[in-house]
Amino acid sequence: MLLEQRVGYGAKPWLAYYPAGVPHQVEVPVRSLVEAFDEATVKYARNRAVVFYGRAIRYEQLRDQADRFAAALADLGVRRGDRVALYLVNSPQFIIAYFGALKAGATVTPISPMYTSVEVRHQLEDSGARVVVCQDILYENVMKSGAAVDHVIVTGIDEYLPLTARLAGAGGLSRRRWGRAGPAQWASRADRSALRWQSLLEKYPPRPPEVRIDPKQDLASLPYTGGTTGQPKGVMLTHYNLLACHLQTRAFWPALQEGQEVSLAYLPFYHIYGQVVVMLGGLLQGGTLILFTTPDLEDILYAMERYGVTLFYGVPTVYELLKEHEKTGRVDWKRLKLLTCGADTLHETTVRDWERRTGCRIHEGYGMTETSGVSHATPLGRIKVGSFGVPIPNVSAGVVSPDSDAWVGVGEVGELILSGPNMMQGYWNRPEETRLALIEIDGERWVRTGDLVSMDEEGYFYFHDRKKDLIKYKGYSVFPKEIEAVLYQHPYVKAAAVVGVDSPKVGQLIKAYVVLQPEARGKVSEQEIQAYCAERLAPYKVPRVVEFRGELPKTDVGKVSRRELREELQEEAM
């Protein structure tokens, strides 16, 4: 029986639904990201690599700056294998520091700009970063963290803005989310160890050190998991892992032309989606990134038409906001080559409303930090609502029992496991967690994702929930996502989240947190929400408790954070 089930996944039924021109396998050369970047900067030297609030930076300029930064790092003592932390918003500095660090042989560890000094300390100390490059407005957090690093390099958004934007005070772009601090403000708080970004680039020539990189062994990036289910962990990704994911993803979209595409780069680069799909995906192919520090809807909609954007990478919260925006209809969305969504569950109501508003369909994808960003995508023009698509080339996927390595049947719910050249090497300094995540079945290494999914007979995969979010009520297994999907269908529900509340009598009670539409607040009761669910769900799935909120806690990429809600419950119980 187990062999028959393995054949169901091993036969890769999804290959029959690959679009024309998509190969089943992609050859991944053993080369570093540095080599791939340098090749693109030579081939497309005069092309615009980045447009940052009106300022264009060509590929040859980007390489010059990265080479200078690499030389500076080498002189500061950074050697092959050292970690360089990037505590930056999306900006040219992030890109330059990223490739400059790689050229110096270092590993980049990006830190969320939303992190507090306590969270910054954890990542700096856990990663062992020797150098941190930070935004001027975030410098104080680095100092408060108390983490021991060799050097802090400080930079400001203004340094790469066009003159008109600088004279206008950056057009308010910094103030909209990050506040604003000039060099004098951070310098007044800085100690003598702080270094100026521009001073370093002016001091050093564009001659990076000669470093031998082993693409399959040397780590290029050490991103940290979002902590939605526990303490953030460093995910070890080699040059080969990241290059493989880039090539696999590109092969799945053969309509995209090298050197021709223009994409919006508002998704945060510290997150694996923005880093690999948007940043690497654009720059290693000679494309142009229209770069934003934050996802301001006015800026996004203006840039769509102004720069002839051809690719749009989104997340559910952005689509939800855009579908209601008054200016969304001014954009010719049908002109785009690709419209995708990832990072979180895309609710059917959002899909339906988006199609009604724009006439376009959204192609979903799936990936994790542990998969270098992508493992699944929806075949172009063959969407199944509710499915996050099929495995991309070179990826093997299967579903096993959450409690063992036994395969479950096609159509049954179990834990998603994945294998391919883009899978992580393990968790940084976490041997036990690495052992649990990386398993071997029939001589093949797989990553346990912790996600509960199912696969249909055509090889399309469907997300049911995180394994750690599963609720056990009187012996029944309850998926929070299923209840949330029903709640989102309610005409007066704007947002919802469901968690389990520990109960000695039933195991876990089901609690729903609900955000109502503004016009319905104070007019819809807990009982009405429960009655609505009772008409659409089995009795044991109906929330026993409903709490109305003005908003729900979210991670820094817009996911509703069930972990924070559970932590609140634990604190209340103490």
Please tag this protein with its features.
alpha/beta, single chain, disordered N terminus, 10-stranded mixed sheet, 574 residues
SSE blueprint and pairings:
Blueprint: H1 2-10, H2 33-43, E1 48-52, E2 55-58, H3 59-75, E3 83-87, H4 92-103, E4 107-110, H5 117-127, E5 131-135, H6 139-145, E6 151-155, H7 163-167, H8 173-177, H9 183-187, E7 194-196, H10 197-203, E8 219-221, E9 235-238, H11 239-252, E10 262-265, H12 272-283, E11 288-291, H13 297-306, E12 311-314, H14 316-322, E13 338-341, H15 348-358, E14 363-366, E15 376-377, E16 387-391, E17 396-400, E18 414-419, E19 426-427, H16 431-437, E20 438-441, E21 444-455, E22 461-466, E23 471-473, E24 476-478, H17 480-489, E25 493-503, E26 507-516, H18 526-534, E27 545-548, H19 562-573
Parallel strand pairs: 1-11, 3-4, 3-5, 5-6, 6-7, 10-11, 12-13, 13-14, 26-27
Antiparallel strand pairs: 1-2, 8-9, 9-19, 14-15, 15-16, 16-22, 17-18, 18-21, 20-21, 21-22, 23-24, 25-26
Helix pairs in contact: 2-3, 3-4, 3-10, 5-6, 11-12
Description of the molecule:
With 574 residues, this protein is an alpha/beta fold. The protein is built from 19 helices and 27 strands. Helix 3 crosses helix 4 (92-103) and helix 11 (239-252) packs across helix 12. The longest helix has 17 residues, at 59-75. The chain is globular.
